[in-house]
Task: inverse folding
């Protein structure tokens, strides 16, 4: 397994556990410059992170907490919000405190710099990578692409079917796959997701004429109602003044027209039941896709 993973992935791996199981293991990891993970126990008033290493305490000084903290373009909330969560780091030194107890001096910033140089900077457009959803805004989902380095997944790139908020598809802490779609004006990775969810034909093949299936009302227009059957597949039903966007619906599949990429539906029933993110089905599972 690559060491350049979203925070939390390495925590319970054999190599990480072995490195944190003894003083010798920690020293060997330090000499090799290994990226390790531990859980942040607290953030003190100076915003230094205290990490539970099991055999001893580790401390990440504020200025070593993340790339950009010292420069001021990353806010201290990025450190405070790690409390109770896994944190990536490289061991810088092992020292004794005023009471003679051993503690490890750690750097999350150094781990991120290594990830940037050896991994992120080498990613190509079309590369498929594992990421973790860290937080969501109306315009998209922010994802950890490795060692706490974040990238934006814009809302329009989440699925073909339009959604009001990323929370319709994901939950915070969810591990998903994404495609590298480009870089922004600061060189940061930008992600896409919809290309992994299958083509119209692949999704339509899962349904048959005459079936009644669940769907979600995504758009109500004067000429009809668009109902999502899958993240990359929607059908059109006749206009109904009583339905609203976001409603759950049971729909009858009246016709599937592959040559026109259309599915005709009849709304059988509908309700206000709140939708929770469903399990993601990936049609593409390779390491690179042309986009």
Result:
């Amino acid at each position: 397994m690559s060491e350049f993973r979203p925070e939390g992935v390495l925590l319970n791996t054999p190599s990480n556990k072995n490195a944190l199981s003894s003083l010798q293991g920690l020293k060997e990891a330090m000499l090799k410059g290994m990226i390790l993970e531990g859980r942040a126990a607290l953030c003190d008033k100076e915003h230094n992170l205290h990490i539970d290493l099991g055999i001893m305490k580790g401390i990440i000084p504020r200025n070593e907490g993340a790339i950009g903290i010292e420069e001021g373009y990353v806010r201290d909330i990025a450190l405070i919000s790690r409390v109770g969560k896994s944190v990536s780091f490289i061991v810088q030194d092992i020292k004794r405190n005023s009471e003679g107890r051993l503690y490890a001096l750690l750097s999350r910033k150094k781990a991120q710099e290594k990830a940037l140089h050896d991994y992120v900077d080498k990613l190509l457009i079309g590369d498929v990578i594992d990421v973790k959803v860290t937080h969501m805004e109306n315009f998209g989902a922010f994802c950890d692409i490795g060692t706490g380095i974040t990238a934006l997944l814009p809302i329009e790139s989440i699925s073909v079917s339009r959604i009001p908020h990323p929370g319709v598809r994901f939950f915070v802490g969810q591990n998903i796959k994404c495609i590298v779609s480009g870089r922004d004006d600061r060189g940061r990775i930008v992600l896409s997701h919809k290309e992994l969810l299958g083509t119209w034909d692949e999704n339509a093949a899962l349904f048959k004429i005459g079936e009644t299936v669940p769907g979600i009302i995504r758009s109500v227009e004067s000429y009809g109602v668009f109902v999502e059957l899958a993240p990359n597949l929607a059908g059109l039903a006749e206009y109904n003044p009583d339905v609203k966007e976001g409603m759950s619906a049971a729909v009858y599949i009246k016709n599937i027209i592959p040559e026109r990429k259309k599915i005709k539906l009849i709304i059988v029933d509908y309700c206000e039941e709140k939708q929770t993110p469903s399990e993601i089905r990936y049609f593409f599972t390779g390491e690179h896709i042309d986009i």
User: Anything to note?
Assistant: The CA atoms of residues 132 and 175 lie 4 Å apart. Residues 200-271 form a domain with the OB fold (Dihydrolipoamide Acetyltransferase, E2P) fold (CATH 2.40.50.140). The chain is about 10% helix and 40% strand.
